[in-house]
Amino acid sequence: MNRTTATTAIASVTAILALSACGDAGPRTATPAAAAPSLPAGFVTKGAATGTNVAAAKASAQVGQELVIVGRIGGSEDPFVAGRAVFTIVDPALKSCADGSDPDHCKTPWDYCCEDRESLKRSTATIEITDAAGKPLALAVRGMQGLDPLATIAVTGTVTERNDAGLLVVRAKRIEVR
Questions:
Q1: Which residues, in sequence order, are CB contacts of 104 under 8 Å at separation 6+?
Q2: Contact 123, 55 (CB under 8 A)
Q3: What are residue 66's DSSP bridge partners?
Q4: How far is CA 87 from CA 1, 10, 25, 104, in A?
Q5: Is 90 helix (H, G, I), strand (E, B) or coil?
Q6: Element spanning 71, H or E
Q7: What SS3 class is residue 113?
Q8: Is 50 exceeded by the pLDDT of residue 38?
Q9: Which helix (H) or strand (E) holds 56?
Q10: What pTM does this model have?
């Protein structure tokens, strides 16, 4: 047997064995790919986004209180925490740079750089979307279902942290995007 014939014979036997092994195994199912992380179905909806503004909530909210807080996503150059479902909102009464007479002068108008820092501090709240254990989801939510800088949203949730230094953290149960 020459070398070409031997190689052809080996390839044929290998192919026959492979085909017969496939026939004996029964139907094959594809291994499902891991689903990309996402927000729970129905967590973010479209609507009027009504509720208590950020400044009023900060003045009266107590830890454990359920509320609906309304604001615009922003407050810094990047209001979203990298890799986590956490972001900040600003009271709708404050004007972003996009709301001024020259909306194109600022490349990140959601940072509210035209506002006084103390006013911004009094008018900012942190929103977190958590798992059942209360830990923020390991999920970058920027751009998901309308969660973009300067989007007006109403967050239904529970106050988890508040202090006299200006901190207000709300654990979201539902978000409505205007």
A1: none
A2: yes
A3: 158
A4: 73, 62, 50, 24
A5: strand
A6: strand 66-73
A7: coil
A8: yes
A9: helix 54-60
A10: 0.78
Q: Residues in the chain, how many?
A: 178
Are the C-beta atoms of 102 and 110 separated by less than 8 Å? no
Among residues 95, 84, 96, the alpha carbon closest in space to that of 144 is found at 84
> Which option is the CATH number for 44-177: 2.40.30.10, 2.40.50.200, 3.30.450.20, 2.30.42.10?
2.40.50.200
**Mean pLDDT throughout 160-167?**
92
φ, ψ of residue 112 to 5 degrees: the values are 55, 40
Domain segments of the chain as ranges: 44-177
CA distances from 44 to 26, 156, 168 (A): 43, 11, 21
Residue where the block lists tokens 């911004």: 120
- What are the C-alpha distances in Å from 165 to residues 59, 63, 77, 147, 174? 12, 15, 22, 27, 27
At residue 113 the predicted structure's pLDDT band, cuts being 50, 70 and 90, is confident
